[in-house]
Design goal:
The chain is of the alpha/beta class. Helices cover 43% and strands 15% of the residues. It has a seven-stranded mixed β-sheet with strand order 5-2-1-6-9-13-12, with helices on both faces. A two-stranded antiparallel sheet has the order 3-4. Strands 7-8 form a two-stranded antiparallel sheet.
């Protein structure tokens, strides 16, 4: 028996990330393949005009419909992708074109649910849709989202977050995770799992999140901090107390704490743990070393300490992480 038609609108604009707009339709198309009757999803790419839109990948995409033509239409799901600008130092900034923000604000009122993909969360935030809510976005712009919108509780360690009818997703390939979650909400876990199998991916990644490959961010703004971070990376197996680090920078313990807070937005202790988890993560991917050895070489001393740090940082265990991400040797 056919399901009621669901209008799925993906907002399209210049310099949009290509995967943000192509990933969800692939999930919905595979859903249809797994069903005996029409699933009811009708996917439309909507832009301000019908002229080709050039994505950040340089691929041109043709819109299906003008945004203005959707006014007063009932929309099931409004999907908002994102776009970024990168400066000469490689720093990434999410963009939120005022015209796009205005359209999202308008169409959100006609939509049963609204979902942002990757840095599309910045557009939802600018449209006032995330005020007072918890949200996620791509790890590289999470600090920007928190700074620009202090009324939003930003959690950069989640694949996606649902707050009522508003969904936010991390980036880039996690657009597939978000789309699978939407399918699961509409049709249940069984069908969503079958679609995930077609995509050769998990229905839910271990740990509830997993921007596992995130390197330590943000970039330092001073050469002095860069040197200290390099020193830390080269001496992770040592105790590295606050006085040790302060001595490296020729400052007091209190000044060191202020520098870390200003430049990296975290305490020295939090940075050290994140750096050690990152080093352990790389060893777990590349070697079969016992957990005790990994813990010792990364400065955790015991595997129990490593386990606790992994759960705090990544929401999973070292064993689970290795079983999924270990790169087999030839």
């Amino acid at each position: 028996m056919p399901h009621p038609e669901r209008l799925m609108v993906i907002v399209l604009f210049d310099r949009v990330d290509l995967l943000d707009i192509s990933g969800p339709p692939e999930v919905f198309a595979l859903l249809q393949r797994e069903m005996d009757a029409p699933c009811g999803y009708q996917v439309l790419l909507a832009a301000e005009s019908l002229e080709p839109v050039t994505t950040a990948a340089g691929v041109r995409v043709l819109p299906d419909i003008r945004l203005s033509s959707l006014q007063h239409q009932a929309i099931d799901t409004l999907i908002v992708p994102g776009s970024v600008n990168t400066d000469a130092q490689g720093r990434v900034q999410a963009l939120a074109d005022p015209a796009v923000v205005q359209w999202v604000q308008t169409l959100a009122g006609q939509s049963r649910r609204v979902a942002s993909v990757c840095v599309g969360a910045h557009i939802l935030a600018a449209a006032g849709l995330l005020s007072g809510k918890e949200a996620t976005t791509h790890w590289s712009t999470a600090a920007q989202l928190a700074q620009d919108h202090p009324d939003i509780r930003v959690d950069a360690d989640r694949i996606y977050i649902q707050q009522g009818r508003i969904w936010t997703g991390a980036g880039l390939t996690t657009c597939l995770d978000l789309a699978l979650a939407l399918v699961a909400e509409d049709f249940g876990n069984t069908l969503a799992t079958r679609v995930a199998r077609q995509l050769v991916m998990f229905l839910r990644r271990p740990g509830g999140q997993s921007q596992f490959s995130v390197m330590l961010e943000p970039l330092s703004s001073t050469r002095r901090m860069d040197k200290l971070r390099q020193y830390i990376a080269e001496h992770l197996g040592q105790p590295l107390s606050m006085p040790d680090l302060a001595e490296q920078m020729h400052v007091s313990d209190r000044q060191l704490a202020r520098i870390f807070k200003t430049e990296l937005g975290m305490t020295p202790a939090a940075y050290l743990e994140a750096a050690r988890v990152e080093a352990a993560r790389q060893q777990l991917e590349a070697t079969d070393a016992p957990l005790e050895r990994v813990a010792q070489t990364c400065g955790f001393n015991t595997s129990d300490t490593l386990q606790r740090a992994f759960r705090r940082q990544l929401g999973t265990t070292p064993g689970q992480y290795r079983s999924r991400f270990r790169t087999p040797t030839e």
